[in-house]
């Protein structure tokens, strides 16, 4: 499974099941799925702009850093790009380890870095809304937890 | 004259009014100024998919990109 950037819908349940089959034997699997919020109906979809090659490399660097930092055996990062409707999964991250804490922490770490460092540009589109999303201060605060 | 491919992502694609252009291989900051003038505080740059932070010469066939700060997933 590894690292995948997907222009098509992401089936998080299938990804989780596949990851469990392939890596569950390690004993601990943690997974996270991020879903596009409608922001009380104001957002119809996100458009995630991406730079083919650079975007995958930025995600791979984060996954590699997690493998180097935590006692984990395998990770998966499946990230959407292009148009993602409200209610659809936008990211799936999983880690397999022999120990639950390492798996939890690796997923938490990868998500914090993905939110700030993945080479993606996010646009919110909806009822009277069409804007590029600027990096959020709270994401920078989350990232500092790991420095 | 030597040419470079210039790509634009995120908000900078809107500012430049383009996603891709072929341009003469002038110096990097000269190229940036041609699209964004002096309003460059929010413009990030890469050459051949490696982010750069200073001026440099460009070579024939280089791929340059201008983009806004990553907003993550």
TrEMBL record, chain A:
Protein name: Molybdopterin synthase catalytic subunit
SUPFAM superfamilies linked to this entry: Molybdopterin synthase subunit MoaE
Enzyme class label: transferase
UniProt GO MF annotations: molybdopterin synthase activity
This enzyme's EC code(s): 2.8.1.12
Keyword annotations of the record: Molybdenum cofactor biosynthesis
Phylogenetic classification of the source organism: Bacteria, Pseudomonadati, Pseudomonadota, Alphaproteobacteria, Caulobacterales
Pathway: Cofactor biosynthesis; molybdopterin biosynthesis
Reactions mediated catalytically: 2 [molybdopterin-synthase sulfur-carrier protein]-C-terminal-Gly-aminoethanethioate + cyclic pyranopterin phosphate + H2O = molybdopterin + 2 [molybdopterin-synthase sulfur-carrier protein]-C-terminal Gly-Gly + 2 H(+)
Function statement: Converts molybdopterin precursor Z into molybdopterin. This requires the incorporation of two sulfur atoms into precursor Z to generate a dithiolene group. The sulfur is provided by MoaD.
Subunit structure and binding partners: Heterotetramer of 2 MoaD subunits and 2 MoaE subunits. Also stable as homodimer. The enzyme changes between these two forms during catalysis.
Family according to the record: Belongs to the MoaE family.
The species this protein was found in: Asticcacaulis biprosthecium C19
Domain of life, source organism: Bacteria
A Pfam family the protein falls into: MoaE
GO BP annotations, alphabetical order: Mo-molybdopterin cofactor biosynthetic process
From TrEMBL, chain B:
Pfam families hit by this protein: ThiS (PF02597)
Protein name, as recorded: ThiS family protein
Top-level taxon of the source organism: Bacteria
Family annotation (Gene3D superfamilies): 3.10.20.30
InterPro entries membership: Beta-grasp_dom_sf (IPR012675), Mopterin_synth/thiamin_S_b (IPR016155), ThiS/MoaD-like (IPR003749)
């Amino acid at each position: 499974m590894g690292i995948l950037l997907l222009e098509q819908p992401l089936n998080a349940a299938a990804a989780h099941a596949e990851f469990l089959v392939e890596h569950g034997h390690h004993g601990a699997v943690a997974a996270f799925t991020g879903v596009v919020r409608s922001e009380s109906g104001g957002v119809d979809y996100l458009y995630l702009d991406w730079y083919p090659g650079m975007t995958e490399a930025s995600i791979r660097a984060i996954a590699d850093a997690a493998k180097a930092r935590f006692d984990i055996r395998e990770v998966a990062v499946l990230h959407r790009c292009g148009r993602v409707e409200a209610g659809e999964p936008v990211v799936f991250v999983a880690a397999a380890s022999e120990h639950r804490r390492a798996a939890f922490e690796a997923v938490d770490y990868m998500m914090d870095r993905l939110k700030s460092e993945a080479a993606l540009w996010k646009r919110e589109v909806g009822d009277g809304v069409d804007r590029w999303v600027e990096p959020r201060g709270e994401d920078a605060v989350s990232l500092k937890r790991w420095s | 004259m030597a040419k470079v491919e210039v790509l634009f992502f995120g908000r900078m694609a809107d500012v430049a009014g383009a996603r891709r252009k072929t341009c003469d291989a002038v110096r990097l900051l000269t190229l940036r100024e041609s699209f964004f003038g002096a309003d460059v505080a929010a413009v990030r740059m890469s050459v051949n998919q490696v982010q750069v932070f200073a001026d440099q010469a460009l070579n024939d066939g280089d791929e340059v990109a201008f983009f806004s700060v990553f907003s993550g997933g």
